[in-house]
Structures are given as C-alpha cells and as structure tokens.
Amino acid sequence: MTDGLHGAFRIVGGHPALDLVNTVSPRLRGGASEHDYLTSPAELLAWSRKVELIDLRDFSAVEGTWRMAPVLAAKALGATLEIREAVYDVLAPRADGAVVAADGVKRGAGSAFERLMLRWSAAAARSMLIPVPDRDRGVAELVIGTSPAQLIPDRLVTAAVELVRTVELRQLRACPVQDGGCGWLFLDRSRNGSRRWCAMEDCGTRAKIRKLGERRRYLRTS
Ligand SMILES: [Zn+2]
Predict the structure, then answer these.
(1) CA 61–ligand 1 middle distance (angstroms)
(2) With contact defined as beta carbons under 8 Å apart, do 12 and 50 qualify?
(3) Domain-by-domain residue ranges, the chain?
(4) pLDDT 10s digits, 80-119
(5) Architecture of domain 16-221 in CATH?
C-alpha cells in the first residue's frame, strides 16, 4: 500500500464495512479519487488481515486458493469493490458532512440496496449453520465464508448488512471534504459527539495548518 492523502494508511471507521468504504482517498460521492488502496487481490488480502477480517488460517486458505485460480481472485476483488461502492451509496446520504462531488454520477440508493442484497444472498448461500453443543447461549454457530475464494467479500457483505440494519445514524459522520477533509466515513463514538475528522493527526491537522496559512495571508493583505 502506498501513501495517499493519508500519510500512513489508517483504520478509523469503527466498523469493517466503513473501513472498506475508506479504502479510497479522498472519498467523494461518485467522484474520481486520487488513491485506491484495493487495486489487486494481494492488496485486498493484506488489507483484510490488517482490519482483522480474517485470521492467519483464513489468510493461508484464501491466498492458496487465489494463487491456484487467479480468475477467482479477480472475481473476489470485483465483488468486494461492488460491495464497497454499494455500502457508500447507501450510507453517504445519511452521513453528517458527506458531499456529492460536482462530477458525481447519480447512482440511486435503491439499486445500491439491490446490489448489496444480491451479494448478501450469495454469501448466505455459502454460509453454514453448525450445531454447537454445551454452550450457555445459542445452539449453533453461523460460519460465513465456507468457500475460501469468496470468503473475504462474503464476510464483508455480511458485516455491511449488519451495519446498514443497526447503524446509529447520529454517530455516522463523513470527514468534511468542504473543509479539507477526506470524506471517509466513521462512527463518532465520543461521549459528546464532537469528533469531526477521520483522524485529528491527519485531516484535522492539515485543516488547522491551512486555516493558519489563510489567516496569515489575510493579515498580510489587510
Ligand atoms: Zn479525513
């Protein structure tokens, strides 16, 4: 992963589905981005491990399968990107601070829901309900991703549907693009709901420096 707008690639979303949305920088609605962190199956694999979507065992299984069948790897990447854009299209209109890029392609939230649902039902078809005896809570475990080739998109879409169903909308924010932010989505879990930036050390600091520069220019010219 190379450096984009963010000096170091940060995990700030507070949910795997938001972290997925934030693999593009800046994140503008329907607009072109300078940097995409998921341009190859290898990048997707490394990112999935980094956000702890998969453990080491899953990593080897996926990596082995993808190496044997590059077509399946490309398919999984394609599915992941479709899920990423669908999650963004569904959530961005409800995120405080999100803006639509001037050159934004109008994509309906309705079709985004449909795309998400299709991916989710395919993932459900590849999931298994396995009985677990001797437990205090629940009698079965839901195993998502029984097919290593599609394990990553299957887990992501399952997480995405869970988020879409349960997200606290007052916590859903976008790093403010109009103030120099990157448009990444995150959950503001601060007690007073005061988080404005994806990361203060990142967009927050950059905006502060810019404001300071504007102030100096203003003082010089006035
Ligand atoms: Zn940001």
Answers:
(1) 34
(2) no
(3) 16-221
(4) 999 999 999 999 988 887 765 444 445 555 689 999 999 9
(5) Orthogonal Bundle (1.10)
